[in-house]
Amino acid sequence: MHSLIQLSIVVLLLPLLSFVILIFFNRRLPRRGDFVGVGILGTAFAISAYIFWTVIVQTYDPAFRVAWNFTWIDLGNVPGVGPLQIKMGVVIDNLTAIMLAMVNLISLLVHLYSTGYMAGDKNYGRYFAYLGIFTFSMLGIVLSDNLFSIYIFWELVGLSSYLLIGFFFEKDSAANAQKKAFLANRVGDIGMWLGILILYSQFHTFGFSEIYANLAAGKFTLSNAWLTASGILLFMGCVGKSAQFPLHIWLPDAMEGPTPVSALIHAATMVAAGVYFVARIFVLLTPDALHVIAFVGAFTAFMAATIAITQNDIKRVLAYSTVSQLGYMVLGLGVGAYSAALFHLVTHAFFKACLFLGSGAIIHAMHHEQDMRWMGGLRKHMPWTFATFTLATLALAGLPLTSGFMSKDAILAGALGFATVEGGGIYYLIPVLGFFSAMLTAFYMGRQIWLVFFGESRTHLKPADDHHADHHAHDSHAAHGDEHHEEHGVHEVSWNMRAPLVILATLSVFFVYSPDPLDGAKGWFMHMIQTPATVVGSASLEKPAALATAQQPLLAEAAVVGAGHAEKDVPESAAAEKGEEKGGHTFADPRQAEIAHATHGAHYTAIYISSIMVVLGISMALIVFVFKIIDPDKTAEAIRPLYLFSLNKWYWDEIYDATFIRGSVILSKVLSWFDTNIVDGLVNGVAVTVRKFAFANAGFDKYVVDGMVNFTAFSVNTTGAVLRKLQTGKVQTYVVMLIIAVFGYFVYYVTKLVY
Amino acid sequence: MLSLIVFLPIIAGLIILAVPSSQKQIIRIVSLLAAIAQGVLAVLLWRTYDPSMAGITAAAGGNPVGSFQFVEKLPWISLNLGGLGLFNIEYFLGVDGISITMVILTALISAIGVLSSWTIQKQVKGYFILYNLLATAMMGCFVALDFFLFYVFWELMLLPMYFLIGIWGGPNREYAAIKFFLYTLFGSVFMLLVMIGLYFSVLDPMTGNHTFSLVAMADQHNFIKDAILGPNNVMWRYIAFSVLFVGFAIKVPMFPFHTWLPDAHVEAPTPISVILAGVLLKLGTYGMLRINFPLFPEVFHAGMFVIGVFGAINIIYGAFCALAQQDLKKMVAYSSISHMGYVLLGLAAGNSEGMLGALYQMFNHGTITAMLFLLVGVIYDRAHTRQIDKFGGLSSYMPRYAAVVTIAWFASLGLPGLSGFISEAFVFVGAFSSVTTRYIAMVSVLGIVFGAAYLLWSLQRMFLGKRKADAAYDLEVGADGHEHIHFHDWKGKLDLDSRELVMLVPLAVITIFLGIYPMPIMGMLTTSINKLVQVLTPVVLTSMN
Amino acid sequence: MSNLTYTVIFYLFAAITVFSAGFVVFSRNVIYSAFSLLFTFFGAAALYVFLSADFIAVTQVVVYVGGILVLILFGVMFTNSIMQSKPKSDIINIVPGILLLAAIIGALLFTFYTSHSWMPSETTLQGSIVQRIGFETMSRYVLPFEMASILLLAALIGAAYLARFEKPGNNEH
Amino acid sequence: MEQLTTIGLNHYLTVSAFLLGFGLFAVMTRKNAIVILMGVELILNAANINFLAFSKFNGGMQGVMFALFVIVLAAAEAAIALAIVINVFKTFKTVDVSNIDSMKE
């Protein structure tokens, strides 16, 4: 067992340990045991940092991969299949290493931040326990080497997000939100599960590498439509977790959870898991599936951006921007800009976490005021927050010199290239939507910055009626008990909440990733993460049977090139890697190669357009909110329908509520009525008829059959009663009878005698 | 050994018979000891069981006891019918992979049931005597390998169940008890007919006369070609299969025959609900596996699709009905209908994954549903109502209870890491892998979502949010300044007391452990199941890919 | 003595017997009927003499008149207090009684006189039969004789037991 | 005329018939137990007359012996009967047989 594997397993299990300790003993530990959580996460981060160092920095090899697995369930000698085992395992490659480090880092920072933010909450200890189990399941997703365990951790992530969203479960809104989130995820999960089933029913294995090997060997006997279907179904899992278009509704509501949780789960890690998963299964996605993914991503990015413009809740704005950014990533994957998408995943994780933690600081300082309309002028009061928040905002908007700029424009370049390769037409919609939402992003982020930090404080403008409706719930009281009641001033947050902001802000500057602020492709990241060869290239679309023959030579030469290209040669990995990616910019799949080439061509165009868009957006924000040339309210009035449309989030909630939720509730009522009245009624009806017949039968028995018996008894009885009268008990009566009898006999005798 | 494990409760019942009925505590303790002893024996059985032996049918060489283990085989009833030959019924016990797990489950659930019967105050003596009788009958059903013996135990089960529901039940208990009794009797009558028919169409390869031995029956070679249920008599075989299937489906319960279940559950006292859902429902599917399918494999093969459809109906229909319930116990009852649907679906798949999932689901459903009913009982003891809307915000006031409920609820909705998930997953894997039931599986996956829906909804309405205006409990501010919950006439501990923890924690631990590492149970199943699948498929499965 | 006187005497005694018997039956007064019973017994005894059963006749007088009649009189006295003016015993359902009486007697007489003709043997009992009774008793009827004696003893004891008076103080029932 | 003058068997039988009839009548109709007893005696006498008459006219001794035993039995019977009557009287304070029906129903 490779040492890295052991380390990674330790990393995986540490947060679970923290969960177990805290869930059982948090009340017995001092400070409710928050130091346990922070400490354990610190250790975990240290180890994962070591892994990162070894994998990324020391063995600077794109094809690096070590794997280990064990038999989890042994089904014995299954008829029709032969010996069959279900394996569980761990795989470490570059992507895993990076994700490990990222997840642990953000989780650690959030733990640290929470010690300040959640201080004094009555379930303080349990909160850290939940953070622990979330981190555990997230790491599980990152590390697992097969679909089954990914599905397991996938659902566990759903569980922990359920627990954390509903942390303030006494608020009905929170309870609803957690239920909504879990169910939406479940819908995605069953799609993903069906996708897994399609693959399993073919290969009787869950492991990635086995599946890819079988696929490359053309063992997939169903029609190719099934393969596309499996791809899209698996993507549904991502749609659920990463809040893509049909199932995006849960993410904004999830903001009911504590703000650090929003930062950790609903900005940085969990929602990114979907993208990570699609990246893992990228190689078995057929071009059709990729097209679907690309369009879904583009649409989501655009829609979320339009909604984000008009939201007033600071966290909701960020939530929708998250959805939109995730749309970017999915779009990137769809167009085959694999590494760009993952790059954006990482960068976005950092700056969006920074933004959320910053907003958390603001909310904390504003005594749980979340509505931007009543903020403003915080620039002076909270300089640290202001600085970090602005930096992160620039990164999100995608201004040059920030990490966001590099990743986003890589994706857009990929989109352009994709469009050109696919031959224009409808496919140009994708880059167009991308650029447009880039502009919108710049606009609403500018709006947010202005509303929050500049201008004068508008706290007093807040109408008193809904003052602290439920924001001022128990936690605010508990959290900052009395010191707020004496001095109500806004103040900078304490160090343990400031430090994470600073760290995250630094991580959203370009030089962390690439020496060239304009081209992320020159950086280490894009080098380490490279687009894998898909085992179902366009060549294999027509006749999957020929896929094996079509694929083998390509793979072979790819392997050669990869081996030649790689700085450090890791034979085991090169051998283990069939369908997985190869070193260098060589692609086993001609289509990918084409797209990559076109992307290179489109690189600078993308930069220009996107920069223009961003500048456009920001200047619009300035025009509207700084120079007041256009009055936002008047504009809103002017385009009221559009404004409402955006403000009400395109009415998705209403639509779903009217169709699915109401529908299923009504259906359930109907069915249970059917059950009690029709099915059960039928049963009872049978029972009743049987009883009726039985009663009739019983009547016959009682009055006729039994009647005869009783009549006999009765007659005997009466005769007895009559005859009893003769038994007077007087001797003389008997004598009389005797004599009468004798005389009777005599008469008889005489008559006999005479005649 | 098996006889001991079967008849231990009866012995306890006899002892109780001697105890004066005023000595309630002694009575309880005696039956508890018996249950514990039974559990110990079951564990012993489990440890000494050899998972490499398949069972199911007679081994090669016509060994009459097959590769069963712990076999006990004595002539029981043997009378000479002259023309009809020798009529011999054997006392034939034995276990294989399919039954050993059920034996363990039964022992476990009976012990839990005794514990939860502690609160029964009415006619304790009679209650425990009937209870022990029931325990014996259930255990007997799972280990009997002679069809006649099986039938005897099967019928023996009805009587105590009827009285336990009919005397110790809720307000509408007579109706429910009668309904349960008639329904099951209806099924078993047909079973009797088929049993006789089988007897006259099967020959024991050893002795050459007719036999009731299921081991002999499970081997198609032992059938007389032209007998009433012989291979040549196709129509009658189909009819026999159908009526037998209906008989077992009533116990499961399968869709059109399920309506006795909610009534019985709602009316029955908590321990009886636990037994009913934990063990009795399994007898239906166990009977299918042990009797219905192996004896008529070709009919089963033809009927897979139909069974699968009914399974899917159970899953989704049950989930929807549960979604609409106001009574918590009724919701749980419908949820177990839905979960037994998974079992049917897995059986219908007819391949190892599906069967494995089905059997594992049988075990897990036993433990999980037992938990659910115990938890319902806990809240009912305190609040004297089960209306979901009468609660709310409980988790602030009863944290321990809320925690266990959360575990149980999530186990029931198939959360990974808890045992329910693995069984459902395997059911779907199997159902999807077989061409016959692929599309059914696709539809039934919806059951996962709706299962989550009704469970989470009830969880939210009862435990989250704040106290409802018309809640079944009051709030009062205690000495320490915190709010405390207060039930109107509940003297006992507010949160779970130690007895309830002793009942619930083992189940929870089992659920979690088997969710992480299922091999302890699955390991015993696999060999038998692979053998069973071979028996069930006359032709090699082409549906696998 | 002449045949005619014989006949007359017979009729006389027969009449005495029958009429006194009738009086026994029909008189309302128990005392009277008891005493007229005396005459009946005497008449019967006389008839026995006519039937040349002189020993029986003597026994009849001794036993009946000297024993039974005295017993009966004692019984009368025990049961009916003499002081009360006339100890009555009224007659129930007299009419059917009379009818049956007539019927029985009529039937018997009818039988005797019409339907049967007795054929007496040549040899009839002549002279005294005391010696022959002695022989018969000791030879042929010895067993009935002994039994009779035992019976008498039993009757004696039984009668004494039944009729004894309990002392006042321990009253049965 | 010859019938009347020469005394034959029938005359005795007639007498006994009358006695029997009267005895039966007494047993039937009188309420006083003692009178009934007298009736019984009459019946016995009638029987005796019969026995003796028959034995006279066929010259056998059986009738005579039987009559002798009848008398003996009659004595015993009378004694027992009277004792019973007296007991009855002690119990019921009456000898009216129509009232002595405690065993009735």
Description:
The complex is a heterotetramer of chains A (755), B (545), C (173) and D (105). By secondary structure, chain A is mostly helical. In chain A, 71% of the residues lie in helices and 3% in strands. About 9% of the residues of chain A have low confidence. With 545 residues, chain B is mainly alpha-helical. Helices cover 67% and strands 6% of the residues of chain B. Chain B is built from 20 helices and 4 strands. The C terminus of chain B is likely disordered. With 173 residues, chain C is mostly helical. Chain C folds into 2 domains: 87 residues, Four Helix Bundle (Hemerythrin (Met), subunit A) (Up-down Bundle); 40 residues. In chain C, 72% of the residues lie in helices and 0% in strands. Chains in contact: A-B, A-C, A-D, C-D. The interface between C and D is large, with 83 and 71 residues.
Say which CATH homologous superfamily of the largest domain in chain C is assigned: NADH-ubiquinone/plastoquinone oxidoreductase chain 6, subunit NuoJ
Q: Tell the overall outline of chain C.
A: globular
**Poorly predicted sequence stretches spanning 5 or more consecutive residues of chain B:** 539-545
In spatial order, strands of the major sheet of chain B run 1-2
Number of helices of chain B: 20
How many strand units of chain B?
4
Q: Summarize the main sheet of chain C.
A: none
Radius of gyration of chain C: 21 Å
Instruction: Report the uncertain regions of chain C.
Output: none
Shape field of chain B: globular
Number of domains of chain C: 2
SSE series of chain C: HHHHHH
The CATH architecture assignment of the largest domain in chain C turns out to be Up-down Bundle
- Indicate the percent of residues in helices of chain C: over 70%
**Main sheet record of chain B:** 2 strands, antiparallel
Q: Class of the largest domain in chain C in CATH? A: Mainly Alpha
